[in-house]
Amino acid sequence: MSESYRTKKRSDRIVMTDEARVLKLLRSEAKLSTRKVTDAIGVSDTYIAHLENGRIDLPPEERLKRLLKVYGARVGTFTERVRTYRSQITPEQELTGLLKRLRPHEVSTLVAVAKSLVR
User: Fold this and answer.
1) Which CATH number is associated with domain 1-88?
2) pLDDT in tens, 33-66
3) Could you tell me the residue ranges of all domains in the chain?
4) Is 0.70 surpassed by the pTM of this model?
5) CA 71 to CA 24: how far, in whole Å?
6) Residue 92: phi, psi to the nearest 5?
7) pLDDT value of residue 12
8) CB atoms < 10 A from the CB of 81, how many?
């Protein structure tokens, strides 16, 4: 790695943010693999995965700018996409995303609640 990236890990639980989701979308839209991104900015693919999956906070502004440049975006574009992201997803998509982050006993509780709603 050409540059050391020290990040503060949030916790062992994933906290998906709209910023993380938009970063993943931007990379996907640019048709870049995590490997290509890591080679371009000198970080590990684990770092990109943690960033996109909400395990770590966004990098400082200068590092974020470098990342966005690789994706072909600017901070202003990123900020606008984040601001409008929530309004672009359906409740079903949001629920699907949430389900992936729940523990098994939480899924069981949610299933019980859902069943009570459809009776």
Assistant:
1) 1.10.260.40
2) 999 999 999 999 999 999 998 889 899 999 999 9
3) 1-88, 90-119
4) no
5) 10
6) -65, -40
7) 59
8) 19
